[in-house]
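I'll show a typical protein example:
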Amino acid sequence: MPEAANANFANNLEAFWMPFTANRQFKANPRMFVGAKDMHYTTADGRQILDGTAGLWCVNAGHGRPRIVKAVQDQVAEMDYAPAFQMGHPKAFELAARLSALMPQGLDHVFFTNSGSESVDTALKIALAYQRAIGQGTRTRLIGRERGYHGVGFGGISVGGIVKNRAVFGPLLAGTDHIRHTHDPARNAFTRDEPEHGAELADDLERLVALHDASTIAAVIVEPVAGSTGVLIPPKGYLKRLREICDRHGILLIFDEVITGFGRLGRGFATEYFDVVPDLMTTAKGLTNATVPMGAVMASKTIYDAFMDGPENMIELFHGYTYSGHPVAAAAGLATLDEYKEEGLFERADELAPYWADGIHSLKGAPHVIDLRNLGLIGGIELESIPGKPTARAFDAFLRCYDAGVLIRTTGDIIALSPPLIISKGQIDQIIDTIGTVLKEVA
C-alpha cells in the first residue's frame, strides 16, 4: 500500500504487537513515554513520571546520562558495525577486560550477547559443551528452579519456572527439571533483607541427583535474587549450600545476574554480596544502562581453557550472534562502567539500602499487603489477590500509580520496585507515599 494511503502512521497502534502487555487494554488507553532524563520519564501529555523500576530493572545509572550518550554518538560516527566472527574491534576487548576485572577471581572470560535471554541460552549451551569437552558427555540435564525467570528463549523458559511463560509453548527442551523455590511466607513474611529460614531448601538438588543421577546433570541455574517472579530473597546460607552441593557432584552452577548485576544490591554483583562464586554468570540490562541492547556471559578460566584444544585454525565453540560485541553497545558499556565508578553508584546504592528498606517496610499494615521483601535497592510488595481475579488488584495499583506520577512494575499480585541507583531519599519517599495512598484506593 502506498504510504500516502495511510499517512498517519504515528497514531496507528495496531501494527505493534507489544510484549508482555495487555494489548487491547493498552491500545484503548495508551500510556506513551516520549522522553526520559535522570529519574523521570516524560509522557505524551507532558507529565513527569518518577521511574521506580529503572525502566525494566535496567537503567541503573538513570536516564540520558551525558557521558553515555556522547560515547554512543561518537561510536556511531566512527564505526557503526564490525563483525565478531573471525574479526574484532578494540572496544569489545577493552570492555571484556574491564568486566573481568569486576569479577571475583576465576570469572575472567566474557562471551557477548544482546540480551539476558540470549545470555541464558549461551550459558546453557556452554555448560553442555563444556561437560562434553571434559569427557562428561552423559551430563545433558539442565536444572532450573520453580518460579525462576531466565528470559524467553526456549532454553530460558525450559529451565525457568513461571507457569504462564511456559504453558502454551509445547514440551520445551527435553531433560530439564526444577528444584523448589525459596518463597516461604509462613516463616519469613515481612523479613528485612535475607530471610532466616530456608537454607535447607538447597538440599532439594540432592533429590534430583538421587532421581536422575549426578552423571546426567550438566548445570543448575538460579537467580541469586529472583526478580521477575516477585522479588524472592534467598535465605541465609542457601546459595553457599547450593554451591557446595554442585561441587560435590561435579555440577556447574550458573548465576543469572541479569537483574542483580551492576549495583542493584549495593555491590557490583550478587556473587560479591553473597560471597558465592558461580562457574558461569549471565548479565545484560545494567551492562549498558539499557542505552543499547547488550548481554554477556562470564565464564571461568577452567571452562574457557577446556575448549582451547585441537588445531588452532578450528572454531572452538560453534555459537554466537551477528551483534556479539557490537561496537556501539561496547562503547555504551565502557561509558556505563565509567559512570558507575566515577559517580560511586554501587556505593550509593549500599548507603541508601537501609533507608529504602525502612520505606518498604513502612507499608506493613497498609490495605491488602500480605508480605514485604527487600534487598539492596529491590523491593517487593505482595498483595492479597481478589478471589477469582488474580493480578487484578496489582494491575489497578499500577494504573493508579501511573496516574499519580510514579512508575511501578507488577508481576501477578506483587508490586516489584527497582529504581535507578541515582534516586534520592525524597524520591524514595515519593514512591512509598504514592503506593501507600493508592493501596487505600484499590478495591
User: Anything to note?
Assistant: The mean pLDDT is 97. The radius of gyration is 22 Å. The domain at 3-60+344-441 is CATH 3.90.1150.10 (Aspartate Aminotransferase, domain 1). The longest strand covers residues 107-113.
